[in-house]
Amino acid sequence: MLRPLSFTVLAAATMLCLAACSSAPADDPTPASSQPATPAATVSTPAAEESTAPARPTADFAGDWTGTAQQGSSSHGVDISLIESDGGYSGTIRHDELECSGTLSDGTVSDGVLTIQKHIDVNGTCIVDLEVTLTLVDADSIGYDTEVSTGVLSRVAQQ
């Protein structure tokens, strides 16, 4: 179990003080400060305690997501449905205003980021094949990025 850094520092300081501040026996005329100090215990702190970077949320992209993506000066709706299977992701995507929809496949997650391939089957005005990057912001929102649009999607609550 990891202890908070302040507790570890306090414990180390207490051990050092006890070792350095102990007095000599009453019949020993040598002052306490010249007595050899008892070696202090080595205190190490795990690297995880020293890191100030916030932890990324657990990568759980499975489910339904909806939001708006900005493409140039216009915006359009994005609806994604993702399933996780054997450590990878796949699903469907729909852009109602652009009158297109398709599949998402070959999704892999690394450090809270899902990279997945989009292939449009029903094409209105969409680019047929694009790589989509989804970045987990928190348990209920993801960043949506392609080479032509960007946005934020929210998890659709299950009823």
Automatic annotation (TrEMBL):
Q: Where is the composition biased (Polar residues)?
A: 67-76
UniProt entry keywords in alphabetical sequence: Signal
Q: Where do Low complexity bias regions lie?
A: 25-53
Organism equals Cryobacterium arcticum
| Ranges for region Disordered | 25-81
State the signal peptide span.
1-26
- Protein name (Swiss-Prot/TrEMBL): Lipoprotein
| Lineage top rank: taxon | Bacteria
Signal among the record's keywords? yes
